[in-house]
Amino acid sequence: RPFHVEPTNIVSENDDMQRVTDEASAMNKRIHYYSRLTSPADRALIAPDHVLPAPDEIFVYSPLGTAFKVDSCTDGYGKNSSLVTIFMIWNTMMGTSILSIPWGIKQAGFTSGIILILLMGILTLYCCYRVVKSRQMIPLTDTSNWEFPDVCKYYFGSFGQWSSLLFSMVSLVGAMVVYWVLMSNFLFNTGKFIYNFVHDINVTDIVPGTNGSNKVICPSAASDHPPQNRSVMFSSGNRTGFELFEEWWDKSRTVPFYLIAVLLPLLNLKSPSFFAKFNVLGTVSVVYLVFLVTVKAAHLGIHLEFSWFTENEFFVPEFRILFPQLTGVLTLAFFIHNCVITLLQNNKNQDNNVRDLSIAYFLVGLTYLYVGVIIFASFPSPPLSKECIEQNFLDNFPSDDIMSFVARIFLLFQMMTVYPLLGYLARVQLLRQFFGNAYPSLFHVLILNLAIVGAGVAMARFYPNIGGIIRYSGATCGLAFVFVYPSLIYMISLHRAGQLTWPALIIHIFIILLGLANLIAQFLL
């Protein structure tokens, strides 16, 4: 980066030289981070041209290697402002879990659901803070390029390395399975809406629901199983053609297999960098969901009745024994611990890391609370019971609902662009560990992708319950990255420094036990 030097101004020259040095240091850290995620032959996450900061623009990176162009938010030398850092963390944490928060509140009870969201947010924030501090407590000269799995390897050796890989794969593959189930759901409802619209068919599902323009349905009213593709035709249309469409366009029996033709070839690409350009759709989708929830609540009104321990026909108790199902979902909803160091290392003022992380967690918790509470409170009870709230709250709106149709289109396209990126990260983490290369051959990559896709298809076919999948994978990977490793590393560091006290020991053992109880409870309730 050229700069003008005034021969008579030594102070200005020194300042400029320091800026160039700082810029080069930040650039090298980014290049090193990209190079650790991929092999030299695969340039999907190799430092692109825009990593070199220009005077007028800067790019902010998410853990998926995607980039946001940010104007006037940095110092021009590769450092992010606090506002950008907070947005990065919020955008990274906001995911598919938001669709299951209303169901989780229903499982826990309204009052206990709100309390649990607040408590889990505080607990996971504290553990995330311990993750950020864990690297700083290592007595080595340079750990600036380390991520949390590197810290685990330092403290626990090969066990820490391989266990962190295992739990990281659980979170990645779990996310990909949830994506496949949701994409099958969204594709099914989108196709159904388009077919009915094109053929001028008016269809009503055989499920209870409200009347009027803002219809809400209860797909699981007749059974504990997911709703099947059953309907009754009321008006014009070819009955034979309609029945044939329903036979070949089924949510669980056919649509999950159709996705293979589109997504399996994309997973086998060496470089998924093209899809990174659509990352902004994630933010748009969340904003639109908040808008949808607000509009629906305004039309439906508030339907609450407080019954503290007993159930009635339309409402659930404020406290329920099923509350661990919500804590399992929340563990994944607040999960960012395996990549938070990367997100914070380019913060302009490192002294603000704790503050910025706390603000980001507050905003994430506020978003979850808003969506969960509004959907639960506005769900029309009576005539429907609160038990009708689905694991994906969009399923409570019929396929011909315009606002829900738009939301499904947004989410379907966004997930189809993120899915290859998740598959690439899974490939990089797993194949590089075993073969030293992220793309050893097409055969190796195809076998891995067939296993991942097969898991998604099987779940969409036989267990299309995203709330269940999220809580199992969240509690499993959260046990390691949220509860156990941060607490153990902190206690070991204090012990080595001779500063471990009984209160600190008891508190962090209790945190570990909470994580273990959270995992065990998922299989008991």
TrEMBL record:
Enzymatic reactions: L-leucine(in) = L-leucine(out); L-tyrosine(in) = L-tyrosine(out); L-glutamine(out) = L-glutamine(in); L-asparagine(out) = L-asparagine(in)
Compartment(s) of residence: Late endosome membrane; Lysosome membrane
One GO cellular component term: lysosomal membrane
Gene Ontology molecular function terms on file: L-amino acid transmembrane transporter activity; metal ion binding
Keyword Membrane found: yes
Primary location group: membrane
One Pfam family matching this protein: Aa_trans
Keyword presence, Transferase: no
Keywords, sorted A to Z: Amino-acid transport, Disulfide bond, Endosome, Glycoprotein, Lysosome, Membrane, Metal-binding, Sodium, Transmembrane, Transmembrane helix, Transport
Source superkingdom: Eukaryota
Its membrane topology: Multi-pass membrane protein
Amino acid transporter transmembrane domain segment(s): 81-192, 259-521
Family to which the UniProt record says this protein belongs: Belongs to the amino acid/polyamine transporter 2 family. SLC38A9 subfamily.
Protein name from the UniProt record: Neutral amino acid transporter 9
Gene name as annotated: Slc38a9
